[in-house]
Every structure is written in C-alpha cells, then in structure tokens.
Amino acid sequence: MILGSGVDIVEVSRIERIIEEKRDSFLEKIFTAEEIEHIKKKNYSAQTISGLFAAKEAVSKLLGTGIGKVNWKHIQVCHDEIGKPYVKLKGEGLQRASKLNIDQIHLSISHEKEYALAFALGEGCQSGKNIVVPPFIKEMLPKREKDSHKGTYGRVGIISGSKGMTGAPYLTSMACLRTGSGLVYTIVPDSISPILSTKLIEAIVKPVPDKNTGYFTLDSLDYIKNMVRDMDVLAIGPGMGLDEERAEVVKDILLDFNGPIVLDADGINCISKIGLHIFNKRGYPTVITPHPGEFSRLIGKSIKEVQRDRVKYSKYLSEKYNIVTVLKGADTVVSNPKGEVYVNTTGNPGMATAGSGDLLTGIIASFIGQGIDAYKASILGVYCHGLAGDMAKEIRGEYGMIARDILEMIPSSINAII
C-alpha cells in the first residue's frame, strides 16, 4: 500500500558554492560517515552531493516533518551492489516511519548539469501494525519452504465464466494467485477465452468447446474432466450461469473429480436443481460459499429465517451433507461436518460489492491447494478476505471500494497474518 511520497529539487550551482566555501564542515553536518565515503569515491562531485541532499529532503517530506525534528543524519542514503540508492532510517526518522506504518521507502535520484531531483515513495500497511491476529489464525498459515517450486503450492482449476460474466473467472483466478497458488488453470467456454487470455497474464487459460453459446454445455464436459485430472483442488461456479445443462455439468464434475471442490455462486444454484444429497456421494472435501439468498434456496427457508439463526442453519447443512459451509455476510459463519463453528470478525459493509465473493472463492481454493485442511482453509480464507477488505477501506472508503481494491490488498492481509 502506498502511504505517501516526497519530492525535492536542488540547484547544483548552490551546492558547488557551498563546497567551495566550506566543504568539510558542510559534509560533516549533513552526511553520515558512510555517505561521505561514497562522496569521496565520486571525487566530491557536486551532482552526487546534490542528489544525496535532495534525497534526504524528499524523505523528510515523506515523513511529514521536513528537516528539523528528523535531522540530516537520521536519514542515510545507501547504495546496493549495482549502485541503486536505498534509505536507512535512524533515530527520529525510524520512529516517525514506524508511526506512519511505513516499512519500505523507494528512492529515485536523478541529476544533470544544473539540477538534482529526488523522489521518495513510502509503502506499508496502514493498519497492519495495529492488527492483533489471533494465534490460531497465524498457526493455520504454513511457512514456505526454501526448497520449493510451483507445484509445491498447488494446481488450482477454476471452472467459471460465461458470456457477459468474464470478470468472475478473472477475479477468482487472480485471488488464487495473490494468495500464493503455484499454478492456476482458468477453464472457460471457448467463446470467451480470448477475453480471459488478454486479461490474465499469470494464469493458464484453458478453453473448452461451447458450440459458440458462450457458456458450458454437455459437449464441454469430457474436456473439463480430462483437464482437471491432476488438479489439487477445483473452484466451480462464479459467473457460470444456470440451466439444466450446466447443472448436469456441475453434477458430473462433483461425482467424477477425486479431490476437494469449492462451490460458489451459480455452482451452488445448480445444486438447488440437483439436490443436496449429491454431497454425500462425494468422498472428498467440499466447501460451499453461499450468500444468504443462495443458502435460503438450498434449504427452502426464507432469508429472514436463515439470518435469524445463521450458526444453527450452517451447522445443520454441514453435518447433514458432510460439507464445509461458509455462510457469507456480516460475521461470516464457517462450519464443518464435526459440528465445529467459526464466526469471522474481519470485513466491513464496503465489501458488499460485485466480485467480492469471487475473490473469497479463489482465496479458499488457493489455501486448500497449498495443502491446508478444507475447514481451516475456509476459516483462514474468510479472515484474510475480510482483512483485505478492511485494508482497502482505509484507502477507498466503504462507498468507493470495488473488488479489485480488495484483490490488491490480499498480499498485505497475508503479510499481517504471517
């Protein structure tokens, strides 16, 4: 998250005059011993000194103080092995950055004969330093092994999308990638694959025949089943659309795929046509992520009745049909077949926006693909999703937030959990 910036420009001739009159005292006042050593290596170049001077001023402006309370030597400009400048803060400078939750400063210095220009950009998590993540949430997220590769972090298949609903597979796929999946395969009807191939760079787009309808048909089924044989987890439903044919596609995949499945949106609506009993025929974990409207259709109760006792109905569905239920909404409820229940504490009303649920599907599928138990992956997923929304709220507010704002904060939410 970008938290602020600072810029400064210095006239090189001004620095030249100072060097001529009082070089040593000036350098001693402004620069650290390491910086002076760098200046000596540059033969006391006025352009080099001007650039370093401008950089310190730019960083002080980023910190909101200017040079004063944060003095010159609290801001040290260093250089890496290829000469790229970076900032090392000390004393009041470090304390000020900590208060602003700035944990990284990007620095650019440019100079020519007459002027030197520096630009400093502060990055960090505006609220991350103040977040107290429950220990049991932290324990769910495994540390990454040094000796690992793409396959280590899961092959996720996203079966999603239809004509006019290309945003759903895009958001679900990107959420998987931002959550840490090694390989994401976006399986879509052939008619919309050119759009997804343009939008998605890191995901692997896999088109299947659709008879030019723009949605999955029974002709798509064998192709899909062959594609997903080696997947670690599937996410089915976002933007898929609903009719008898697509319900049959969902039913066949549920019964054929030997692995965990996350079912959302139209995937859940298809179950309303197929019947919940199909879940009991599966020998692998199934996660469903309904909003109250989808949930009410599943169990034949009004939304008002479901909302009145969310925990009760979520537990009922999980225990009877051997599934993990994620009942979305304020205080999202996660339940499993053992009768265990988690009520989430992150999130805000700004997340009630198109595409937000697609992100959650991708996050949960990603965690399962990384080897986390389906129930724990769902808990971690809703916590991470809500936290990303809380972070997005700080930048966009609750009114202007869109799904892509939440998407961009997924890595920051994970960093806060680690």
Shape: elongated
Number of strands: 14
Q: Provide the residue-averaged pLDDT.
A: 94
Oligomerization state of this entry?
A: single chain
The amount of beta strand, in percent, is 15-25%
What's the main sheet like? 9 strands, mixed
Which stretches of 5+ consecutive residues score pLDDT under 50? none
Task: Tell me what you see in this structure.
Helix content is 46%, strand content 18%. The radius of gyration is 27 Å and the shape is elongated. The chain has helices at 12-30, 33-41, 46-62, 91-99, 135-140, 167-179, 193-199, 221-227, 244-256, 266-274, 292-299, 303-308, 310-321, 356-369, 374-400, 403-417; strands spanning 2-11, 75-79, 85-89, 104-111, 115-123, 155-159, 183-189, 204-208, 233-236, 261-263, 286-288, 324-327, 333-335, 341-343. The model has no long low-confidence stretch (mean pLDDT 94). It contains 16 helices and 14 strands. The protein is of the alpha/beta class and 418 residues long. The strands form three sheets. A nine-stranded mixed beta sheet has the order 8-7-6-9-10-11-12-13-14, with helices on both faces. Helix 1 (12-30) crosses helix 3 (46-62), helix 6 (167-179) crosses helix 14 and helix 15 (374-400) crosses helix 16.
